[in-house]
Amino acid sequence: MFTALTEAWRALSPPHGDKDGPLTPFLVVLTIVTGLVDAFSYLVLGHVFVANMTGNVVFLAFGLVGAKGFSTAASLLALVAFALGAVGSGRVVGRLRGRRGRILAATAACESFLVGVSVIVAVSVGSPGTGGVRYLLVALLGLSAGMQNGTARKLAVPDLTTTVLTQTIAAAAFDSRLGGGPDSKVGRRGLSVLAMFFGALAGAAVILHVYRALSLVFAFALLAPVSVSAYRLSRSQPAWDEPT
Q1: Which among 243, 170, 206, 186 is positioned nearest to 40, based on CA atoms?
Q2: How many C-beta atoms surround the C-beta of residue 19 within 10 A?
Q3: CA dihedral 139, 53, 207, 64 (to 10 degrees)
Q4: What is d(CA 35, CA 43) in angstroms, rounded to the nearest whole number?
Q5: Is the separation of the CB atoms in 35 and 199 below 8 Å?
Q6: What percent of the chain has pLDDT over 70?
Q7: What is the distance between the alpha carbons of residues 234 and 155, in angstroms, rounded to a whole number?
Q8: 164 and 149 in contact (C-beta within 8 Å)?
Q9: Is residue 18 classed exposed, middle or buried when 0-12, 13-18 and 19+ CB atoms within 10 A define those classes?
Q10: What is the C-alpha to C-alpha distance for residues 131 and 133, in angstroms, rounded to an integer?
Q11: Is the dihedral of CA 115, 118, 120, 122 positive or negative?
Q12: For 220-244, how does the pLDDT look when each residue is reduced to its tens digit (9 = 90+)?
């Protein structure tokens, strides 16, 4: 237990000279954002994820056979928007020549803009989960999540994909002592799971008991500081900012 807690703390507060520098805690924050936006998309926009695409593939199949409560169009739109967001992330990576801090700063800035527009849309209409507004929000949030996932892939910080936990959980179980492994990185991997869990928990809580758009407001409030901080910290071109 102590080792796991130590690993988690080192992820949140990397020691001086860590090869990933502040990228690790930044990606933990983005994992929280994933929980917040998926809480909004599922609970407000109706049985669709904008960040976890595995669920959308399954939902798409459900919708195609006529299962109630699932929208083929919404699931397909989320998949397309997510893919286009990842394409956009690839363009950002190319323009910034792989500099990790600048890539994260640019991506978080784009995400902040897309989520900010989503907040305005959600607040401006009476029923954001219906009609064309629903699809607009799915598209905006899907684009932002796709950019985030593409960037996390390029940054290549171990165990922090920010939107997918299947492999993280499987790796933690496989490498555990029960699985005959060295029980390594349990704290770091567990931190990733908890980050998404608490993001989803907070998002669901404010949606159900306070105000539905507040989940997106929280996401914006986390994204904007990540963008500014990543840019400022990478200006001196530290070692962790070097291309992978």
Answers
A1: 206
A2: 12
A3: 80
A4: 12
A5: yes
A6: 93
A7: 14
A8: yes
A9: middle
A10: 5
A11: negative
A12: 999 999 999 999 999 988 989 888 6
With 90 as the cut, is the pLDDT of residue 72 above it?
yes
Supply the pLDDT for residue 11. Answer: 79
The rounded distance, in Å, linking the Cα atoms of 116 and 111 is 8
Does 1 score more than 60 pLDDT? no
Q: Which two tokens stand for residue 42?
A: 């599922």
Q: What is the pLDDT of residues 35-63, one digit of tens each?
A: 999 999 999 999 999 999 998 999 999 99
| Residues written for the chain | 244
Block residue for tokens 């555990």: 176
Pairwise CA distance, residues 215 & 42, whole Å: 12
Mean pLDDT of 111-138: 95
The pair of structure tokens assigned to 117 is 């527009």
Place of tokens 């980050």: 195
- Residue 206 CA to residue 152 CA, distance in Å, equals 27
Give the tens place of pLDDT for each residue, 151-196. 999 998 887 888 877 777 776 777 766 666 666 677 778 888 999 9
Tell me which amino acid residue 60 is: L
End-to-end Cα spacing for the chain: 32
Check: CB of residue 230 under 8 Å from CB of residue 40.
no
Task: Give the helix ranges, DSSP H, for 44-99.
Answer: 53-64, 72-95
State both tokens at 186.
């349990």
Region 108-118: mean pLDDT is 97
1 CB burial (10 A radius; 0-12, 13-18, 19+): exposed
Residues 93 and 113: their CA atoms lie apart, in Å, by 18
* Structure-derived torsion over alpha carbons of residues 164, 62, 119, 202, reported in degrees to the nearest 10: -50
